[in-house]
Amino acid sequence: MQSRRLTSFARRREQWLQALDEASKLGIPVVAICDTDNVTANVDVVIPANNRGRSALAAIFWLLGRYVLLHSGALSSDQQMKYSIKDFETKLIEEEEESEGYESS
Q: Whole-model pTM?
């Protein structure tokens, strides 16, 4: 039996369109988080959501992670996840440098 795999990525529009085109040509199913202005051609499953901000994307990926853990049996519905939504948020390099500067002062 073949194992199921999940890959997720968030990319700029130009990179997304190329990846979408390649996946379509290879017959790879595509699940996409789409806002109202996104092109959904060649997308097999659309998850409607705000995909513009880091916090919004972090919340979406946290919810998807929780869903996968719940339905795989790795987490029960009454258990808390090990990670918070903030842990899923991409940190900008400038923010990291600023926080390091404050810590060393």
A: 0.67
Residue finishing a domain among 18, 35, 51: 51
Structure tokens at 52: 């513009």
Residue scoring higher pLDDT (8 or 87): 87
Q: What is the phi/psi pair of residue 78, to 5°?
A: -95, 0
Rounded Cα distance, 58 and 54, in Å: 6
With contact defined as beta carbons under 8 Å apart, do 70 and 77 qualify? yes
- Residue range of the domain that includes 63: 53-105
Tokens of 51: 């995909």
Position of tokens 């979406």?
60
Do 7 and 43 belong together in one domain?
A: yes
Q: What's the CA gap between 75 and 66, in Å, rounded?
A: 8
